[in-house]
Write a structure and sequence with these properties.
By secondary structure, the chain is of the alpha/beta class. The protein has 17 helices and 13 strands. Helix 9 crosses helix 14 and helix 12 crosses helix 15.
Length: 376
């Protein structure tokens, strides 16, 4: 009998959690799992889902009226009771906050419930006391908490304890798709010199102002390079203003959201991550699969990905340390950068799609069919 699973998430935008959700459900065994992905409002990106994955939305439209209705019903805990009627074996809140609140109000007593945690609460939550008071009762309603990295798990347990059980389930990266798409040509883009590249949502947690400050200072120090941003988001205007105010247009380019960011990553000489916090960085994992030299701040998941700076450079999560690290890598010769590229490629083999999907499928089946039942 198939395990019937609901994945509930706000939307399927270009964010990291949304992307890895598509990677997971698109590669799960449909002979064993009946999969539904549900967003709040109809989403154009539902086309990213593989045939056979059921897609639905809670509300019929994303108009102002329905968004207001959602806020009212969410505050009253009525989103699930009023709109989510199907009979699932597992119900998953695949993102923090809104989806967690919705699934916590589930009226399906049969379903096992999982809350997915993609961020480091120690850093992401400024008022921890208020957050714990608000969220503790919600998390107690879940059977399992799945964190995407050991650091995410540590921060969750420090706030809410280990009841329900907290486990680590790494994000699924579609390595075959990445390698295939990376070979597509970069149309209309000319690589002129040594190039740094970052991919992600233009949002505060990514701290792209730190990256721009570093690039501006290094350019003033005489380093000659280009910096590519691939992604879009709420801080685009802030980033554009900084570039303009510091006369960086000649070497910094914003490419916006790209359905296929991999040719940009492949063409770059160095991948850079300036984040204040991550969950388990899709960008860095993809960089390993592509075999690229990497430098990143020390945030959640990076040591699981890069070891102790064995497969890429991890620097303290401070502006000056980040500047020093990027400067060090820009000062390397081609042979030194190639050593990091070779180590990166070898490390990337640990994050194959097949391996990560199988681990996650076993996790789901063990929840529905405990070991004692499977051996009867």
């Amino acid at each position: 009998m198939k395990v019937k699973i609901l994945f509930h998430i706000d939307n399927l935008s270009e964010g990291g959690a949304e992307k890895v959700l598509c990677n997971l459900v698109n590669n799960m065994d449909q002979r064993r799992f009946d999969i539904t992905v549900q967003t709040l409002f109809p989403c154009d990106n539902s086309g990213f889902l593989r045939k056979g994955v059921c897609y639905k939305s809670v509300y019929p439209k994303g108009t102002k009226y329905y968004r207001l209705l959602y806020r009212v019903e969410a505050a009253l805990g009525l989103v699930y009771p009023l709109h989510m009627k199907d009979d699932y074996d597992i119900e998953i809140a695949y993102l923090e906050f809104g989806p967690t609140k919705v699934i916590a109000s589930s009226t399906n007593k049969k379903a096992k419930k999982i809350a997915w945690v993609h961020c480091d609460f120690d850093i992401a939550i400024p008022d921890k006391k208020a957050f714990i008071e608000k969220a503790a009762s919600q998390y107690k309603k879940f059977d399992k908490i799945a964190c995407v990295s050991e650091k995410c798990k540590e921060s969750f347990v420090s706030m809410f304890g280990n009841d329900p059980e907290v486990v680590v389930i790494h994000n699924v990266i579609d390595d075959k798709e990445i390698l295939e798409k990376a070979d597509q040509p970069l149309i209309g883009v000319e690589k002129k010199r040594l190039t740094l590249c970052t991919v992600g949502r233009l949002s505060a947690p990514k701290n792209y102002i730190r990256l721009l400050k570093t690039a501006n200072k290094l350019h003033g120090d005489g380093f000659d390079f280009d910096l590519w941003f691939v992604g879009d988001g709420e801080q685009r205007n802030l980033i554009e203003d900084f570039i303009r105010e510091h006369d960086m247009e000649s070497y910094v380019t914003l490419f916006g959201f790209q359905k296929n960011p991999y040719p940009y990553m492949k063409a770059a000489d160095l991948l850079v991550c300036s984040s204040d916090y991550e969950g388990f960085s899709t960008f860095i994992a993809e960089g390993l699969i592509l075999g690229k030299p990497i430098i990143t701040t020390d945030c959640s998941g990076m040591r699981e990905l890069l070891g102790d700076s064995e497969y890429g450079v991890i620097v303290p999560n401070k502006d000056e340390a980040f500047y020093d690290g990027v400067k060090m890598m820009l000062s390397m010769n081609k042979e030194e950068l190639k050593e990091y590229a070779d180590k990166s490629l070898e490390r990337g083999k640990l994050f194959s799609t097949d391996y990560l999907v199988k681990n996650t499928e076993v996790f789901f089946e063990d929840i529905v069919y405990p070991f004692s039942e499977k051996t009867e």
